[in-house]
Design brief:
Number of helices: 17
Strand content: under 5%
Order of helices and strands: HHHHHHHHHHHEEEHHHHHH
Number of strands: 3
Shape: flat
Strand order of the largest sheet: 1-2-3
Helix content: 40-55%
Largest sheet: 3 strands, antiparallel
Structural class: mainly alpha
């Protein structure tokens, strides 16, 4: 067995066995994802050990399922803690066998959970009937799974026994552990679950009507922001001597100059940047539409430097990729929040919140202080409702004076 990328002939146990035909496709896959030869060789050795187990126990490739690989890895480790790469190798191999049609398609991430079938059907309803985004579907499904696990514990799930009191009791149970925003998300998820159960005929009554609303007054919060000079200090102290630092600097500039959301940075693709016109297309996960904004000169220069010097060559069209293999787009919005948090710590800035939105709030507040109207700020931030922009007037006293109503009867 020969391969130009890694010497497979040096790995014992690969000359025969059910996994032999799939080693070459696996090596080609991980090579495309950016793994170095030594890392690939370590992964192949792990697959060879699994192949020997299959030969010894007279199994074939169809038996390579998560349960088998988990038992194999626990016995192989013998008490020592596994590194993430070992688990990732077996998950990647299992996915490859599934895509090749060797093993059955994965029906559920947790087949042993009694409420899995209900949650999976709920997810399908949210995607097809409600047309919700993948992020929202995942969040709603997580809450539905927690509720069903809490209500039925380890017993058989019987949704026909659910009542509105069960939903309300779970909200009260979570109230002492969750923030106000988290409770609002929980209420929305359980209302969607209640409507789904009634819509699908699983319960006779719409349980969503029994769920109380969480008290949340409009414009009650004050946005957390940083002064303009603090934002510039954070940008100036962002380390740009490494590929990761140059990538993070470009991300921070997009957040600070355009007020992008974390998810909008993640979804940015190479085709979204019009270099000739100096514009960038921002795709929102809320409505799927793209808004075109001018690309600031410093942000464009930072992105150009990252693309030319540091961005790995791979099939992904995302602008910002993982530094280490596998080379793919950044996974989720919390990754952007981690980039922001590390930049603030590096600059010695103490903030109540260290997520991506702190730059968004800072941009809006700075623009308001320079005389920009709320309407223009809403257009830059791509707000669908004027109420979303009106909250920034609370941090600008001069703007509040211009919209204040006279006191009845005049001043004393």
């Amino acid at each position: 067995m020969q391969h130009s990328f890694v010497p497979l002939e040096t790995v014992g146990g690969l000359h025969r066995g059910p996994l032999c035909p799939y080693v070459e496709p696996y090596v080609a896959l991980v090579a495309q994802q950016g793994y170095k030869p030594n890392g690939v060789l370590a992964q192949v050795r792990l697959i060879a050990a699994l192949n020997c187990l299959l030969v010894r126990t007279r199994r074939d490739a169809r038996d390579v399922e998560p349960e088998l690989t988990a038992r194999f890895l626990r016995r192989r480790l013998r008490g020592r803690e596994a590194c993430g790469g070992e688990w990732a190798t077996l998950r990647r191999l299992t996915a490859l066998l599934r895509q090749s049609g060797v093993t059955a398609r994965k029906q559920s991430a947790c087949p042993h959970r009694p409420n899995t079938r209900v949650v999976d059907t709920f997810c399908e309803y949210l995607r097809k009937e409600r047309g919700l985004s993948l992020h929202t579907v995942t969040a709603y499904a997580r809450w539905a799974d927690r509720f069903l696990s809490w209500r039925f514990a380890a017993g058989r799930v019987c949704v026909r026994r659910l009542t509105g009191r069960d939903l309300t009791a779970f909200i009260q149970h979570r109230a002492s552990q969750a923030s106000q925003a988290e409770l609002c998300h929980l209420v929305a998820a359980l209302r969607a679950l209640g409507r789904f159960l009634h819509y699908s005929g699983r319960v006779a009554r719409d349980l969503s009507t029994a769920i109380p609303a969480v008290a949340r007054w409009s414009l009650a919060d004050v946005p957390v922001y940083l002064p303009a000079e603090t934002v510039e200090r954070v940008l100036a102290r962002c380390g740009r001597s490494t590929p990761c630092g140059r990538r993070n600097y470009a991300i921070l500039l997009l957040l600070a100059r355009l007020g992008l959301r974390g998810g909008e940075v993640l979804r940015l693709e190479l085709e979204d940047i019009d270099w000739e016109a100096g514009r960038i297309a921002i795709r929102s996960g809320k409505n799927g539409q793209a808004a075109r904004l001018p690309l600031p000169a410093d942000a464009g220069a930072a992105i150009t430097e990252y693309l030319r010097r540091d961005r790995p060559r791979c099939a992904s069209r995302r602008v910002f990729l993982r530094v280490n293999a596998p080379h793919a787009g950044l996974s989720a919005s919390p990754v952007i929040s981690m980039v922001v948090g590390k930049a603030l710590d590096r600059a010695g800035v103490s903030a109540v919140r260290k997520g991506a939105h702190v730059f968004r709030h800072s941009l809006a507040t700075t623009m308001l202080g320079r005389g920009t109207s709320l309407l223009e700020i809403g257009q830059i931030l791509r707000h669908r409702s004027p109420k979303s922009t009106a909250i920034y007037a609370k941090v600008e006293l001069e703007t509040l004076r211009t919209i204040a109503l006279p006191w009845p009867g005049g001043a004393a």
